[in-house]
Each structure stands twice: as C-alpha cells, then as structure tokens.
Amino acid sequence: MVTVITRFAPSPTGRLHLGHAVSAIRSHDFARERGGRFVLRIEDIDGTRSRRAFVDGILEDLAWLGLRWDALVFQSERLAIYEAALEGLKARGLVYPCFCTRAEIAASASAPQGDVGPAYPGICRGLSSADIAARTGACCWRLDMAKAVAEAGALSWHDAGAGWVVADALAQGDVVLGRKDAPASYHLAVTLDDAAQGVTDVVRGVDLFAATHVHRVLQTLLGLAVPRYHHHALVVDAEGRRLAKRDGALSLAEIREAGEDGVALAERSRAGG
What we know:
By secondary structure, this protein is α/β, with parallel strands linked by helices. It is 36% helix and 16% strand. The protein contains ten helices and ten strands. It has a three-stranded parallel sheet, covered by helices on one side. It is globular, with a radius of gyration of 19 Å.
C-alpha cells in the first residue's frame, strides 16, 4: 500500500493567519488519519520578500496549533533542480523569453481570470532570434501553452469535490515558469517539489483550483507522478473576502498574544467552528 503523503507549503513573506491554519490542519489531519506523512515545505524563493523571521514564525504557529511534521524542506535549497528542469524545457522549444513589464501586460491582456490574473496575451511569443538578441533587459520564461498542450495531449485530474476534471490549461495562457529574479515560478517549483517529495494528496484552498490545470500539463511534460487533489473552501471575513496578508488579516501570532489556546483553536476548526 502506498503511504499517504501531504504537504503544507507557506511562503515566509508574512505571518500566518486563520486561512493558513485551516489549510495546514486539513493537510496534516488527512495524512495522520491514514497513517501517512506530513511535509512542511517553506516556499522561500522570493528573495525580495522572504524573511528568516517569518520562517521562525511559521514553525512557531504550527507548533502552537499542535501540528507536527515529518519533514522540513526549503525551496531555496532546490534552485539547481528548478533551473535544470527549465533548461530542459528550453531545449525542447516549449518556453520562450518574455521581456514585458506588468504595465504592458495589463494594458493589452484579456480580462482577469479569478485568482490567476489576466491571461498573458502572447506579446513576446513570436519574437525572432534577432529580436531577442537585441533586447538588453531581464526576461522571464513563459510556457508556450499551445505547444505544451499539443505535446501533452488530452489530460484530466481528480479532485475530491469536483470529481474527474478535464485539464484546460489553454485558458490559463502562457504562464511564467522562470521568473526574472528566480529560476522558477510557483507553477514549476510546486510541480517539481510535490513529485520529489512523494506527495500523494494535495490539500489546498480552492483559489488554486485553476492552477491545477497548468500543473497537470507540467506533470506530463516532465514525466512526473500525478497526485490526488483536495481543494477546500477558503476562510473569509465578514464581507465575504478571503483572508489575506495584504488586507491585514489577523495573524495567528496576534491571536496567540490575545491569550487564545492554539490546540483548542485547531479543534474548533476541525469541528467547523
């Protein structure tokens, strides 16, 4: 029997809030209830925003909730692996350099698509070798989604709530796989990491449901195992907005400082309170 392995993968760019707590608890409990393993992965490749103090805060918060992990992994220690995968995709002609600024994309892109933002309009897709050689600015690397989907073929993936889902990565556009400031984007890093760490079941918020279409294509292109998915509802505020660091959501540290018991909070979360 295959051991169930789940993961919780926060970015150390701020303190955790209740939304993070719910996702961590769900992922932790899914593995524990099945005699499996729970991996804590710190997604710290955002060099401009990641802080060691936030890593320490994540460890403190999860311990306060009564959660224990079987492995601790840092993305910053895996940069060479991401770079090698990206180079392989370059060699296969599946990615292309993009020099666009965010302002240029926003001015010409299609309407936003939920949490993934506007689909890239393909401005740099047709650049010639001479055009690329003439550019001096930094570039990111985008997946040529039409080529990728054609090579990968018809795909599907299973979600605990939605059942079997036909992969529709074309709707996500030519996503970034290699950032201007890092050898991997979220899409590439998380796909490689889940496979390397043997994750069998991905438990995460429904805001990442659409991203799974992209990940499914990358899994096939890179010859990686396909996990089962369990997308759960998000924790929202009184106005129905999902909790977010940028909106000043109350952090677990602030809740703890107010005298709340973390284990009791986790039990209420499990009970739906």
